[in-house]
């Protein structure tokens, strides 16, 4: 039997790549999207959930009925909940109140217990989703705390899977990789592997307007004045994650909510790829990078598309939401407006 698996976890990894033919066609390089939405939990986080939980099993830290605890903006939660079901563990998650109700419903549908915490408080506030997860982990016997922001197995999962896949899929010809950085694990692990193979590969991190990562990379300092709230989930931080290997990243590009939202919808409309909000962010980052750097036909660029658009229907794919954000000044706030502009070109 081929392509038949014992359970859903057998589908994790080995995600396909698709060439982008429209949204970046003004850039001479070949641009490929690695579709992490093809994982069974629809995001890159399936890889770390499986890797970290299996590492804990190997160390004898988990027994049937153990509890897995994590703080998550959504994707890591889905993945941990999925792995927990198959392996017979309980799953407790703390999420920020920025998380949309349908994401929370999805987590609950996968059997997770969910604590909703304010996004507006500092990371060290006892009400923050970090502190709530830590407290629950301390109070729950026979449990592990995944701690994806400071767990080096987060990097290792991508060093062992995503990086080698990209190397093989591009026949070792990749010249640039672009990845969104939340915990930093996806890009750090992939970059570590790829730079070992070829140190000339350029690694570009994508940071959010309102986050501190780009400036920290450039100056080694946190500029508190740069912190403000923003809408893109899963990208950027108000703390320095231990899973982000700054020395593997050549440059950060910072993108804003509006450009990334428009770009996400453009990718759906022109490439027929329904990606999450950070899919737009990573394409937007390449477009900004190409304005300041020379790219040629010989360049092979890989963009990591972290998750699927179905989780953002009432957010970036909603015309009402776009209008509420005031994202209409460039006339791209609705599907119709984008299509009309494209047809007029
Ligand atoms: N995009 C989305 C939608 C995410 O949820 C995340 C994870 N927080 C990322 C990008 C960034 O991935 P990583 O944590 O591996 O840096």
TrEMBL record:
CDD domains: CBS_like. Its cofactor is pyridoxal 5'-phosphate. InterPro entries: Cys_Synth/Cystath_Beta-Synth, TrpB-like_PALP, TrpB-like_PALP_sf. Keywords: Pyridoxal phosphate. Signal peptide: none annotated. It holds the Pfam family PALP. Residues 9-307 form the Tryptophan synthase beta chain-like PALP domain. Transmembrane segments: none annotated. Belongs to the cysteine synthase/cystathionine beta-synthase family. PANTHER family: CYSTATHIONINE BETA-SYNTHASE. This is Cystathionine beta-synthase.
């Amino acid at each position: 039997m081929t392509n038949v698996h014992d359970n859903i976890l057998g589908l994790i990894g080995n995600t396909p790549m698709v060439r982008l033919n429209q949204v970046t066609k003004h850039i001479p390089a070949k641009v490929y999207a690695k579709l992490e939405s093809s994982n069974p939990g629809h995001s890159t986080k399936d890889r770390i959930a499986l890797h970290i939980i299996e590492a804990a099993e190997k160390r004898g830290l988990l027994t049937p009925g153990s509890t897995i605890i994590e703080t998550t903006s959504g994707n890591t939660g889905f993945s941990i909940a999925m792995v927990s079901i198959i392996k017979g563990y309980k799953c407790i998650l703390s999420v920020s109140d920025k998380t949309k109700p349908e994401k929370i419903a999805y987590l609950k549908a996968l059997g997770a217990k969910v604590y909703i915490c304010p996004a507006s408080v500092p990371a060290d506030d006892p009400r923050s989703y970090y502190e709530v997860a830590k407290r629950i982990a301390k109070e729950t016997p026979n449990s592990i705390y995944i701690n994806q922001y400071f767990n080096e197995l987060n990097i290792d999962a991508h060093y062992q899977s995503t990086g080698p896949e990209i190397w093989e899929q591009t026949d070792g010809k990749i010249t640039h990789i672009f990845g969104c950085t939340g915990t930093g694990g996806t890009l750090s692990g992939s970059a570590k592997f790829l730079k070992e193979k070829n140190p000339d590969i350029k690694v570009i991190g994508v940071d959010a307007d309102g986050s501190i990562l780009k400036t920290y990379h450039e100056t080694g300092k946190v500029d508190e004045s740069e912190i403000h709230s923003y809408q893109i989930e899963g990208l950027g931080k108000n703390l320095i994650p231990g899973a982000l290997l700054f020395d593997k990243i050549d440059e950060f590009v910072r993108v804003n909510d509006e450009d990334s939202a428009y770009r996400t919808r453009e990718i759906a409309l022109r490439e027929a790829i329904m990606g999450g909000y950070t899919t737009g962010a990573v394409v937007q980052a390449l477009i900004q990078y190409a304005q300041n750097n020379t790219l040629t036909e010989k360049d092979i660029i890989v963009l990591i598309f972290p998750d699927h658009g179905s989780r953002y229907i009432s957010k970036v794919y909603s015309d009402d939401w776009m209008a509420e954000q005031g994202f209409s000044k460039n006339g791209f706030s609705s599907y119709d407006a984008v299509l009309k502009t494209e047809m007029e070109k």
